[in-house]
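Try this one yourself first.
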């Protein structure tokens, strides 16, 4: 039994209307709908805030520094994460999960208020804000999924993360719409305060979820053994309730802050976590390089259309903007539908070992085609399939992978993987583009061939991660059964 030790109430909950409604999309057991919907709202608010902030980032850096500085700043984010991720780990060692959630969210809210004041005073903050947004978008989302992993057992997470992840997709869509309406209406500075307000509401929702779950599952425990007081990162954190007595057998390995490993050390000490880290690096490397291939192809097609008079009277920037608006809409709609109706079925009938192979197989097939026929229509189709699958199946699976890990690994190692290793993929892609353009003279087909090789490595890593997940899941189930 994990931190979510079941309260011995002696009663069985009945399925309510929301439990039955959500059962259309995945298996939902009685009493599970409330927390699942609150978590969905929580991540919805976080993503809506981010997609309001994201265009502000572009406006501030491009208007003051230019596109070249923007590309170099991506590497700066990875360097900053080398210091920030261990600092987050120290907080997780000392604060219970509610305190950790509130402290980190409060930090980001205060940063937004500070950026508001600086922009109102006409202080140039383009580069600093760009770096900050890159860190915010990774750390705040990784923290949310650490929290969700802490609340759910492996069996619950495999079923219910399908619903929760839908909040990410919907938040991205609604946030983009809000940004397009709010920024012209109130301006850049005031839009920062709107995003800050959404973060405050998200924090309130996470507090409600934390109180709800502790009230449902930890009321039979003394306060010092509940998640209200125990730090978020506490090793295995196992509490076994003895049904035939009032005694509790408690195992809290590595509770003392000085005895627990650091964030990066956790990853490199575990074969499973290191495989996940390498997988995430390759995933983002392939995806970011694919975005470059798409952008390069679209720009060339726009110039050709304008030159030949087939652009419908549009200039090159307008042609590109129209293409991407249609592209993002199609990706988001397909991603939402796949998340709602396909992901849960894949996980239920084929399992995580198969689900984790879907995206690398799509990438392998797509870049094989592009290596021989890098035309715009095909590039567009490949990236729609890749991005829609990434936002749905892959996004759910990457968070499910942490279900059979310890709390220490959920809160600390996940931050390393979802922030530093993910951003390292961007850095590797930037280096590839620089070398490919300036030294090797690679064309679109050349970059597609490189991505084809990377997709092959990705597939091998996915197979290895799937096997390790199955092994850890079996060990966890045997351990629970033994108790």
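Now uncover the answer:
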């Amino acid at each position: 039994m994990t931190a979510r030790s079941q309260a011995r109430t002696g009663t069985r909950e009945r399925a309510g209307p929301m439990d039955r409604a959500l059962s259309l999309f995945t298996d939902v057991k009685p009493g599970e709908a409330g927390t699942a919907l609150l978590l969905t709202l929580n991540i919805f608010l976080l993503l809506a805030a981010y997609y309001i902030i994201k265009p502000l980032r572009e406006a501030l850096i491009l208007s003051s520094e230019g596109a070249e500085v923007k590309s170099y700043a991506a590497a700066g984010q990875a360097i900053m994460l080398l210091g920030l991720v261990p600092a987050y780990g120290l907080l997780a060692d000392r604060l219970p999960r509610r305190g950790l959630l509130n402290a980190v969210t409060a930090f980001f809210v205060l940063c937004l208020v500070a950026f508001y004041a600086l922009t109102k005073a006409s202080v140039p903050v383009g580069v600093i804000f760009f770096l900050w947004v890159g860190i915010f978008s990774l750390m705040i989302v990784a923290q949310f999924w650490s929290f969700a992993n802490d609340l759910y057992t492996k069996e619950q997470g495999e079923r219910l993360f399908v619903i929760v992840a839908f909040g990410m997709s919907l938040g991205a869509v609604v946030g983009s719409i809000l940004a397009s309406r709010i920024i012209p209406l109130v301006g850049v500075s005031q839009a920062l305060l709107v995003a800050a307000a959404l973060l405050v509401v998200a924090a309130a929702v996470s507090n409600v979820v934390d109180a709800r779950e502790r009230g449902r599952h930890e009321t039979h425990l003394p306060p010092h053994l509940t998640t209200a007081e125990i730090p978020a990162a506490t090793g295995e954190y196992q509490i076994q309730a003895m049904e035939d007595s009032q005694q509790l057998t408690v195992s809290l390995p590595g509770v003392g802050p000085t005895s627990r490993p650091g964030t990066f050390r956790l990853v490199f000490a575990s074969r499973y976590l290191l495989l996940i880290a390498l997988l995430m690096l390759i995933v983002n490397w392939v995806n970011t390089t694919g975005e470059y291939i798409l952008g390069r192809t679209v720009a060339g097609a726009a110039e050709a259309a304008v030159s030949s008079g087939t652009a419908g009277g549009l200039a090159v920037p307008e042609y590109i903007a129209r293409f991407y608006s249609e592209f993002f809409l199609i990706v988001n709609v397909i991603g939402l539908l796949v998340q709602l109706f396909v992901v849960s079925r894949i996980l239920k009938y084929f399992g995580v070992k198969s689900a984790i192979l879907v995206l690398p197989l799509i990438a392998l097939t797509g870049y094989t085609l592009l290596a021989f026929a890098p035309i715009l229509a095909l590039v567009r189709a490949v990236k729609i399939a890749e991005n829609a699958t990434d936002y749905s199946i892959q996004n759910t699976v990457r968070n499910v992978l942490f279900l059979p890990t310890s709390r220490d690994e959920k809160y600390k190692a996940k931050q390393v993987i979802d922030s530093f290793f993910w951003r390292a993929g961007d850095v590797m892609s930037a280096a590839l583009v620089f070398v490919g353009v300036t030294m090797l003279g690679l064309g679109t087909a050349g970059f597609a061939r490189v991505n084809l090789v990377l997709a092959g490595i990705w597939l091998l890593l996915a197979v290895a991660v799937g096997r390790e997940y199955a092994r850890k899941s079996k060990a966890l189930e045997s351990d629970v059964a033994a108790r």
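Discussion: The CA atoms of residues 96 and 229 lie 6 Å apart. The chain has two domains: 17-257, 264-482.
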